[in-house]
Amino acid sequence: MTEHDGFEFELETDSLANSMGKAIPHRSLCMVCGAEGKGKSLMGQRLAFGLIANGAKVAMVTTELTTRGWIEQVASLGYWMEKPIQEGQLLLLSRFGVLAEENPEPIDLMTLLDSEGPRAADFVIVDRASSMMGDGSPTQIISTIRRFCADGRTLMLMVDEAEIDDLLLRELRGSAEILLDMLTSSEGGFSRSIGVTRFLRAAGPVQPRIGWRVEPGMGFIVDITAVS
Quick one: which of 27, 105, 128, 135 is 20 to 30 A from 187 by CA? Predict the structure, then answer.
C-alpha cells in the first residue's frame, strides 16, 4: 500500500503519471476504450511496466499476441519484462500460448477472473477484454467484476467498443472508477491523445487530455505540446 492507497506507475522515461493522477486506486475498475489501432495495447504495456517498476504484482492477459511475441514487442519499446516474469512479479497469459496455436477452448472473462493466476495478482490487465465477454448478462458481468475488485484487486479492461453490446458498454463505462478514451486526430497532422473521461480517487493532478507518441527503444512519450 502507498500513502495514497493506490498503485504508482511512474517511470523516469516519461511524465505520464504526473499528468494522470499519480497512482491508480486499489480495488478499482479501469477501462481503456478505443477502436483498433488507437493505442490500447501500448497503454496496457506502459502501465504494466510502470506498475511492476513500482512494486505491484501484475497479471497481463493478451488476446492478440503469443507470450513470446508480447515479450518481444515490449522489449522493442525498452520495456524489459523477462526478469519480472522469472521472478514472479508478472504473470503473462495469452490465448495463443507460446507458439501461434490458439487455445481450442478459449476462456471468457468470467472464467478468467475466477482462475488462480489473476486472483493472485494485485493488478490485472486484460487486452482485449471486449473479445472475451462471453454470454453473461450485463448484470452478471458487472457483479463478477465488482466481486473480483472488492477482494483487493484492481482490474483494467481494454475495450474495442465495436465488439461489445451497447447495454453492457454503457454499464461498464458507468461503473468504472477510471475511464480513458484513446483518441486520434488528423487536424494539423496526425496526433494521438488520451481523453481522461473519469478518474476517481486520484492522488495527484489529472489532465483531461494527454497527448502522446511512441518512440522505439523509449516507449510511451507524453507530448507536452499536446497536453491540455
Answer: 128
- Per residue in 161-172, is it b (16+ CB within 10 Å) or e — as a string? eeebeeebbebb
φ and ψ at residue 67, rounded to 5 degrees: -60, -45
Strand 209-215 to 219-222 pairing: antiparallel
Model confidence at 143: pLDDT above 60: yes
pLDDT (average), residues 166-181: 96
Sign of CA dihedral 135, 118, 54, 199: positive
Q: pLDDT (tens digit, 9 = 90+) per residue, 88-128?
A: 999 999 987 655 455 556 688 999 999 999 999 999 999 99
- Position of cell 482490474? 155
Give CA 30 to chain center in angstroms.
8
What domains sit in the chain, N to C, each tagged with a CATH number? 22-183 (3.40.50.300)
Non-local CB neighbours of 84 within 8 Å, separated by 6+ positions: 52, 58, 90
